[in-house]
Amino acid sequence: MMLSTLTALTLAAATVTNTETVHDLEPFGGHVVACTEGGLELFTPAGRPVRVLTVEDGLPSHFCRALESTGDRLFVATDEGLVSLDTRFHVTPVLDVRWQALPAAEDASTPDYVSRLESLAAVLTPGPAYTAFSPRFAGTAEGRLFELGTGRAWSLPGPVRFISDTRDGVDVGTTEGAFSLSASGRLTALRDLPTGPLSFTVTEQGVRIVGSHGEVHAWETESVPLQAVSVPRGATVLREGWAGTRTSGVFLQGKKGWRRVTPTGQLCGNHITALARHQGRLVVGTFDRGACWQREDGKWQTVRTPSLPSDQVLGITSDGVNLYVATTYGLGFHDGKAWTQVAYGARNPVALGKLSVLNVSQVDGGVALVDGRGVSLVTPGASPLSLVKRMPLPKKWSKHPSVGEGAGRFLWMGSEDRGLLRWDGEKWQRFHDGRDLTDNWITALSTDAQGRAVAGTCQDGFSYFDGAKWTRVRTASGLPSPAIVSAALVPGGAVVGTLLGASYFDAGTGEVHALPKLADPRVYAVLPEGDSALFGTEGGLSSAAWKPLTAPALSRR
User: pTM of the full predicted structure?
Assistant: First the structure.
């Protein structure tokens, strides 16, 4: 009997995340657990890092927002659901909610606390991102305060971070201020607060308001600094000698002051927008935290402004000698010795026509620096940059170019409203929806020297060009979303990243295969390497096989 062909896509390597943004801390199971945007990081009571729990351990998302313990279970609120962990850190789903806070457990047993969570979920209006709870109120990331069980609501400046019911009303803390609300609904703001964004912590001495520079004030009508208290800069949570921060991880207080215990040399950021190899090293670009490359010791070395024009990276390319980082404010250029900024309207020796550099690609004759008005072709391997020629885009094509990429003799440009352009070395050719593309709003593009291309759209799937004809894929059972945000050509097809996961397109069969769960479903960068690929997501870096593994046919003896 012949066995049917099996398709298997398996995760090939561990997820890599950054744990330097901390939202909560909780002692549990003989450890101190940090709730970070890169998963749950476990520390010993002495501050030694033990491990990081990620989606591979069963978490629905790396974006942890809040922790609460009932003694035998640790409850974890993430961006993709609420779970609990036992003392061996095994994950159990609890509720499919997107809360960014948890109600206080106080002395509740685990069954009682689960019942409380279910009751709260039943009375909350679906939709808002809830960021703080008290027995009578709920606050949101939009700065709304709701009184549970009534129709009363108030608007406040900044996301709500703290709520405490009082005898005469409620105290409310947001990132921008601290307020007292009377029973009649009258709102009073506290004065002389620290510099925001603010965070709030409850101690045995009362509520403390923590400023972004490490200043601590007491919650009083005339709030005064507590001179004896100092905390790490950017502190988000304080708990019994431990502190979590916005961008520097976890600190432990000792006799000589605060000591960072989160490991250094981490991946520069979790929201990854670009991936490349430079002289054998993996280089990662992020949405708002610059770029970094992996060193031989496994640690990451980060570069940000002022070395780069902007920390928002749009693309990365290497010509083997020089490294090019395209950003929203110009080009970051590294010649092996130093970084140089190149931008329109400033130092601009290569005739860039717009501030944002959309992409950098190696093509025949040079390195193409792509901006919204054309392409500057520069000499590869040269330092300083040397302009070969400037290629303007056709007049009246589009005022809203979105992406660009080239290979061989081909150079492609995508737009938000006019589809695609291709330069073949002699002339420009246009490709539009209806005849060629699923839609004219191009959000992702990958090309090769053989003339192939794959173009993803904002909400209508993707189109694949084999060099002669287009194949349009709006929807498919293996395509988790028609919102395409990244793409990469591979032998025989393409890999596309969407806002709900990644897929492999087999051009020979026309089939689309969903890939396994990655660090985060929002996949913004793909770098194929053999039969696997690196995936840059909004929640970290993953490696997975893109190529279907076909089981050999077995015949009956």
Answer: 0.91
Residue 8 amino acid letter: A
CB atoms within 10 A of CB 184: 7
DSSP 256: T
The rounded average pLDDT for each run of 10 residues, N- to C-terminus, in the chain (557 residues) is: 28 76 97 98 97 95 96 96 97 96 94 97 93 96 94 94 92 96 89 91 87 89 53 92 96 94 97 97 97 94 97 97 97 96 90 96 95 95 95 92 96 96 94 93 97 97 97 96 98 97 96 95 97 96 83 37
Which tokens hold the place of 427? Answer: 């002339």
What is the SS3 assignment for 492?
Answer: coil
Instruction: Return the SS3 of 444.
Output: strand
Instruction: Look at phi and psi of residue 450 and say left if phi exceeds 0, alpha if psi is from -120 to 50, else beta.
Output: alpha
Rounded Cα distance, 415 and 405, in Å: 12
Q: Which of 444, 355, 458 is nearest to 405 (CA)?
A: 444
Give the full edge-to-edge strand order of the sheet including 137-140. Answer: 130-133, 137-140, 144-147, 153-155
If one counts every other C-beta atom within 10 angstroms of the C-beta of residue 377, the result is 22
DSSP codes of every residue in 158-223: S-EEEEEE-SSEEEEEETTEEEEEETT--EEEPPSPPSSSPEEEEETTEEEEE-TTS-EEESSTT-
